[in-house]
Hints:
Blueprint: E1 9-10, E2 20-21, E3 45-51, E4 58-63, E5 75-80, E6 88-90, E7 100-104, E8 111-119, E9 130-137, E10 143-149, E11 154-166, E12 172-179, E13 184-189, E14 200-207, E15 216-220, E16 227-232, E17 242-250, E18 253-254, E19 261-263, H1 276-314, E20 318-324, E21 335-337, H2 364-371, E22 380-389, E23 392-400, E24 406-413, H3 420-433, E25 444-448, E26 455-459, H4 466-472, H5 479-498, E27 511-513, E28 519-521, E29 536-538, E30 541-543, H6 550-555, H7 560-575, H8 587-595, H9 608-617, H10 628-639, H11 642-646, H12 655-665, H13 669-675, H14 682-687, H15 693-696, H16 703-707, H17 712-732
Antiparallel strand pairs: 1-2, 3-4, 4-7, 5-8, 6-7, 8-9, 10-11, 11-20, 12-13, 13-16, 14-15, 14-17, 17-18, 17-19, 20-21, 22-23, 23-24, 24-26, 25-26, 27-28, 29-30
Helix pairs in contact: 2-3, 5-7, 5-10, 7-9
Ligand 32W is lined by residues 386-387, 394, 410, 412, 442, 456, 458, 460-462, 464, 512, 522-523.
Amino acid sequence: xxxxxxxxxxxxxxxxxxxxxxxxxxxxxxxxxxxxxxxxxxxxxxxxxxxxxxxxxxxxxxxxxxxxxxxxxxxxxxxxxxxxxxxxxxxxxxxxxxxxxxxxxxxxxxxxxxxxxxxxxxxxxxxxxxxxxxxxxxxxxxxxxxxxxxxxxxxxxxxxxxxxxxxxxxxxxxxxxxxxxxxxxxxxxxxxxxxxxxxxxxxxxxxxxxxxxxxxxxxxxxxxxxxxxxxxxxxxxxxxxxxxxxxxxxxxxxxxxxxxxxxxxxxxxxxxxxxxxxxxxxxxxxxxxxxxxxxxxxxxxxxxxxxxxxxxxxxxxxxxxxxxxxxxxxxxxxxxxxxxxxxxxxxxxxxxxxxxxxxxxxxxxxxxxxxxxxxxxxxxxxxxxxxxxxxxxxxxxxxxxxxxxxxxxxxxxxxxxxxxxxxxxxxxxxxxxxxxxxxxxxxxxxxxxxxxxxxxxxxxxxxxxxxxxxxxxxxxxxxxxxxxxxxxxxxxxxxxxxxxxxxxxxxxxxxxxxxxxxxxxxxxxxxxxxxxxxxxxxxxxxxxxxxxxxxxxxxxxxxxxxxxxxxxxxxxxxxxxxxxxxxxxxxxxxxxxxxxxxxxxxxxxxxxxxxxxxxxxxxxxxxxxxxxxxxxxxxxxxxxxxxxxxxxxxxxxxxxxxxxxxxxxxxxxxxxxxxxxxxxxxxxxxxxxxxxxxxxxxxxxxxxxxxxxxxxxxxxxxxxxxxxxxxxxxxxxxxxx
Length: 737
Ligand code: 32W
């Protein structure tokens, strides 16, 4: 069969087996020879970058190219020149078939250039790639620490801003090139990760027999090219050994110093006594010998330092800078860079007063009068329902204030038809909240008790509950932002514990997040939001089992130390972006596992130090747990010391994890036997009439030989399995199939 060449191809003569593509047109490897030739797509259109004010997440969106090149396999790649090494593209930066991508974990107040490439199946063969460019400047990706003035009940004017910055990595390949009796020519390579434009290099040198503090510093302006060199003069090399180090500086600050390199003295050069020719000859000879020695030293030093080098290079060039004041970025003098311990004394907070248990008033109305303000119902305008609780709905609304301005508020309403005790409990919560005033505790504005329905009016916190908020922003925050949120919660809890208030229900669902990511502790009371499966009735009271310490579960020992346990769970929820603690395990399994010493594993990308803090909160002995005060200062130290945060916790496979998960998997005797690798006794149990798990729960050691299970090892294994089932039935009353 003879056919004309397909589109965009030609044949040099008639009857060719295959047609060649015309210039700039191609066939993809998967195309058939009979397919038309196609070209690369034109560039994406209407590329825009939107920077999210709060998270500094950059959203890039674009429209498809006008020309798809005659194909239908267009895809997009994103390139970002100076993005941090751990930048995150969601869903991806490669092979995108969507028209939008989120870029997160960018540095604060930095302008980034993004290229969006349109590609298709023939792009690999073409030399031109078409792209569109856009730039975006981020806001803060750190957090602000504000201080609360207890005397004036408002923020102090001083605050601290913390953020990660990228510093240049250490310079590489530092060597001494030329050496005379008084000078040295130092050479080095530019850092592997400059993380910005290098403004200068700083050379530090000191005599080996003198302390580092007597060291001298020189500045070198970068020259073009990979190798930089600097002549260092006025040295006394005849009798002394010198140590040299170099570091790079960008506008973010100095990187770490390179490994030290040393030079050894020579005493053969005796300048003045010799003739000029002699000097030159001796100097040349000395230099030659020295160079030979140095070359040997250089290689050996290089080798002995290569380990150190690895460590330096592995050190991710991140640091923290922080500054006082409310502005996003102060003048350069105001910025304090963290040093290796990063210690700075932060102002101490004034001691708070003690909270009064309103139930001692006996009469709710008296407690309310003491601690709350009555608000007229007609000054409140309800807008929308934003949540529901056991005692009624939570709504957003506006409160008309004395100066006639409207303030956005949250209104918790008592549901119609609530009983008198319900109403009392509902309002008791308000009289607890009314005693607190702290930036990290949700603020009560007033109550409506004179008219129905009764209402509790609080400040409105823009981003709602922390657990849902984190789930909606999965993976979008820097570790320092997460630490910032945790710091807020710890600070609010420190305040509450100083007031001798025990929360009993600290959980991410009871934390509110505002527009600046500041967190506020909420929910004071007995009106528990009924989250699916979060609470378990135990002897009258409801207990959020997964968040509660063992001593509080077993003998109702609720203290600030049990709040600290819950705080550890909240830390885990935060770092895992709202994962449910202990996943889908049943409450009984959680209690048993925790009792046996099992603890939640570190969430993904969790710094070891953060995980250690969680483990500290989950100490079995409550007296060994940290206090909220300690937690706040430890978190401050973490926020100021990024090198600690860089060391991530290793996730270890915990046998108990699998054991418990296994345990909830099987539903009948057959599955149970299989889980213990004891399926050989399947018929034994079946013939004896044991099918359901409940049937075997009462079996004892004496029953097993009767069934025909005679091996002692097998008996032990099966008995252990029976005990686990019994424990499960005992603690739950759960019905087994
Ligand atoms: O977006 C939100 N919810 C999901 C969609 O709803 C339709 C949301 C946004 C902001 C807030 C809540 C949800 N903010 C907020 N919620 C509160 C609150 C203050 N702000 C919820 C409860 C309380 C205060 C409160 C707690 C205890 N007692 C009284 C009130």
